[in-house]
């Protein structure tokens, strides 16, 4: 997986400093920065050989390019962009081809590079987001109930003018639609109620994959939300795709496209009737519609409920004997060795386990999930 698109040199330096600090294992640092271990070792080796200079990107440009864009062609591209400053490379090339079909215009990517070189592209600043619990993995499953995927299909109005927010939950392996519920908003309470219904009907998965929106993710430590904390308490791993990369949950996005085509054109008269339409769609999708990637079988022919049943009462969180166990205060803090550590307000009244791993360095767990590292000497929390 590549480095982040914004300022890769700074990301590499941060990566090297984190590796040298030994706060996280090398593989954990690679995961946090969204790169493979192979890529991480490459830059670590270059740093050892040449210091920070070794982290500079080496030019891949050929010494001679026989297909270099002529100055006249480049000038026409710049003039058209100046005339239509909001047009991108794709639109510019289509316009140029329509006007002068006899000219061999450069590829879309080359036009994009010309615009950048001429300072005609405004680079958007991206706000650094808190690191999620898990991020960016292209998930692979081999049997049902390994991963459920969940999302909200874009809201729309029913014919009575009320907004409808369809919550959808699907089994990743079998494509079985577990839930398609019309809700009035994305508030966490009703969403939790629907997941409880899903767990009662089908049992618990090993993990749930979502995007970074409310109520699946928050803005604090490891992007935990009250919903994901509840999942962890049930022994479910919350997984998050990278922001702006819906293709990492591509199966669910494809499901949404089919759902939209078959249930929202036109919308039903009201929420109650829209829910009837959703249930009719689920019945057809699960039991009648064969799926190419299931070798012509329907999702219902492949899916089977989980053997992990939903507990009526949340089980107590247990930690190994060498952990120091702390209850999170209503302020979101814990106290460890006379130091107050702020974790997250969504962890209020939860019990966390603190494992000493080095002199003055601690791992902090919620159940089976590592949520932070605490450097006691520096008084710093790493999420």
Give structural notes.
By secondary structure, this protein is α+β, with helices and mostly antiparallel strands. Helix content is 33%, strand content 18%. The protein has eleven helices and 13 strands. Helix 5 packs across helix 6. Strands 1, 2, 3, 4, 5 and 6 form a six-stranded mixed β-sheet that branches. It has four domains: 48 residues; 34 residues, no CATH class; 156 residues, 2-Layer Sandwich (Nucleotidyltransferase, domain 5), CATH 3.30.420; 59 residues, no CATH class.
Topology:
Layout: H1 8-21, H2 26-32, H3 37-50, H4 71-83, H5 89-99, H6 108-117, E1 147-152, E2 156-157, E3 163-171, E4 177-183, H7 188-202, E5 207-210, H8 226-233, E6 237-240, H9 250-263, H10 271-287, H11 299-302, E7 324-327, E8 333-336, E9 339-342, E10 351-358, E11 361-366, E12 369-375, E13 380-382
Helix pairs in contact: 5-6
């Amino acid at each position: 997986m590549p480095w982040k698109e914004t300022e890769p040199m700074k990301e590499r330096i941060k990566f090297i400093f984190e590796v040298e600090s030994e706060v996280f294992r090398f593989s954990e640092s690679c995961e946090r920065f969204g790169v493979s271990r192979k890529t991480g070792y490459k830059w670590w080796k270059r740093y050892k050989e040449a210091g920070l200079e070794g982290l500079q990107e080496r030019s891949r440009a050929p010494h001679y390019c026989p297909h270099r864009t002529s100055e006249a062609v480049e000038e026409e591209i710049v003039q058209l962009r100046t005339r239509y400053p909001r047009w991108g490379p794709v639109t510019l090339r289509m316009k140029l081809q329509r006007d002068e079909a006899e000219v061999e215009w450069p590829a879309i990517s080359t036009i994009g590079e010309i615009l950048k070189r001429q300072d005609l592209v405004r680079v958007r600043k991206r706000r650094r987001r808190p690191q999620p619990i898990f991020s960016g993995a292209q998930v692979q499953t081999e049997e049902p109930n390994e991963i459920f995927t969940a999302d909200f299909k874009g809201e729309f109005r029913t014919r009575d003018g009320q907004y409808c927010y369809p919550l959808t939950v699907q089994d990743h392996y079998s494509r079985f639609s577990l839930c398609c519920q019309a809700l009035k908003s994305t508030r966490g309470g009703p969403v939790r109620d629907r997941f409880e219904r899903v767990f009662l009907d089908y049992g618990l998965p090993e993990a749930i994959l979502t995007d970074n929106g409310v109520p699946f993710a928050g803005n604090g430590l490891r992007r935990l939300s009250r919903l994901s904390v509840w999942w962890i308490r049930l022994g479910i791993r919350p997984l998050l795709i990278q922001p702006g990369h819906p293709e990492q949950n591509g199966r669910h996005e494809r499901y949404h496209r089919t759902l939209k085509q078959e249930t929202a054109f036109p919308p039903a008269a009201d929420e109650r009737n829209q829910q009837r339409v959703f249930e009719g769609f689920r019945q057809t999708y699960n039991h009648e519609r064969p799926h190419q990637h299931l070798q012509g079988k329907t999702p219902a022919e492949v899916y089977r409920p989980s053997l992990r049943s939903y507990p009526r009462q949340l089980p107590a969180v247990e930690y190994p004997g060498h952990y120091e166990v702390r209850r999170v205060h209503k302020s979101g803090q814990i106290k460890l060795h006379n130091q107050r550590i702020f974790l997250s307000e969504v962890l209020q009244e939860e019990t966390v386990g603190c494992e000493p791993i080095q002199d003055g360095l601690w791992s902090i767990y919620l159940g089976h999930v590592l949520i932070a590292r605490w450097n006691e000497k520096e008084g710093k929390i790493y999420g």
